[in-house]
Amino acid sequence: MTMKTNIKWALATLVLATSSLAGAQTTTLLNASYDVAREFYKDYNAAFVSHWKKTTGKDVKIDQAHGGSSAQARAVNDGLDADVVTMNTTTDVDFLASTGVVAKDWAKRFPGNASPTTSTMLFLTRNGNPKNIKDWDDLIKPGIQVIVVNPKTGGNGRMAYLAAWGYVRKKGGTDAQAAEFVGKLYKNVPVLAKGGRDATTIFLQRNIGDVLVTFESEVVSVDREFGAGKVDAVHPSISIVAENPVAVVERTVAKKGTGELAKAYLDYLYSEEAQEIAAKHALRPRSAAVLKKHADVFKPIQLFAVSDYFGSLAEAQKVHFNDGGQFDKLYTPGAK
Q1: Helix orientation angle between 175-187 and 155-170, rounded to the nearest 10 degrees
Q2: Where are the domains of the chain?
């Protein structure tokens, strides 16, 4: 081997070692999240990366995986190495707790039932609201086509279903009357979407339906992606509080040694900066001060909690959404 070759080989080794060292200094964190949260986390991740660098001097790269909330929970359970999960229903995190993937007491690990933000369900109609849709009663009228997420595959869909059921109950109706009402609503559903973003695509790109029932936060995403003025946001008189729970995936962080970083990532969601970003994306912040500041975005709606009529989301899951449950009795694909 000539001296020239030796030098080239040494330089190549040095470059390789340096790039490996640089790679080792940047830790990657994977957040498995629900469909309509992608824009929020895109902005939040940039803020957290900057905060982490400022406070620790270390670089971090955040990767995202999005889909229907329940589908994401199943993917993590089946081996997707997410460091954290940020979901839109507690049942999806409860499922991961039941299999030992996240801590049993995950809801006590962070403030506000481990939910740094909440949302609620509202309606998106086509520009100008041509069918004059104002409240839940309008969704069961003949000839109205309603786009919703399948409650078996996404938290968005479960919340829409429970919001419609709870609307009847809050007005003094019985469970039997609520079942009849929700049954009529699903007869007006031409196709069930897999997740929140899929529902928006069906409504706006495939141009199916008169009204989309979705999270309040999707209004901002629609305006950004499809241009302002494509839809009108209609706030019904009554809706549900949907908590957006978060948890560290203990199985992954134990393997990767990212426990401290994963916790810091979720802790920072409660910071003033993160709560402001949440408000910008029409996610209801837990911070009372930030919520008050954005009263123009978060219109007053009579809100009820899952516990008011369903016990808990876990109980609602068993009664309504498990195979053979209330939803299966009410909804027959293709039936009118």
Answers
A1: 130
A2: 3-117+243-293, 121-240+305-330
What is the predicted pLDDT for the residue at 317?
93
CATH T-level fold of 121-240+305-330:
D-Maltodextrin-Binding Protein; domain 2 (3.40.190)
* Residue 214 backbone phi and psi in degrees, to 5: -155, 180
Close Cβ partners of 296 (under 8 Å, ≥ 6 residues apart): none
pLDDT of residue 296: 85
Instruction: Divide the 336 residues of the chain into consecutive groups of 10 and give the mean pLDDT of each group.
Output: 49 41 72 91 98 97 92 95 94 95 97 95 96 98 97 92 98 98 97 93 96 89 83 95 96 97 98 97 94 88 94 93 95 70
User: pTM value?
Assistant: 0.80
At residue 23, the pLDDT reads 42
Per CATH, 3-117+243-293 and 121-240+305-330 having the same topology is answered yes
The owner of tokens 């609620």 is: 120
> Which tokens sit at 113?
């039932």
Return d(Cα 149, Cα 154) in angstroms, integer.
6
CATH 3.40.190.10 assigned to 3-117+243-293: yes
Residue pair 167/136 in contact by the 8 Å Cβ criterion:
yes
Tracing tokens 């449950």 back to the chain, one arrives at 325
Count of CB atoms situated within 10 Å of the CB of 261: 23
List, edge to edge, every strand of the sheet that includes 231-234: 192-193, 146-149, 211-215, 121-126, 231-234
Q: Tokens representing 94?
A: 């409860």
Measuring CA to CA, which residue among 139, 152, 154 is closest to residue 198? 154
Please identify which residue in the block is written with the tokens 């080239």.
8
Report how far residue 86's alpha carbon sits from residue 65's, in angstroms, rounded to the nearest whole number: 10
From 226, 195, 190, select the one nearest 208 (Cα to Cα).
Answer: 190
Q: What is the dihedral sign for C-alpha 96, 101, 107, 110?
A: negative
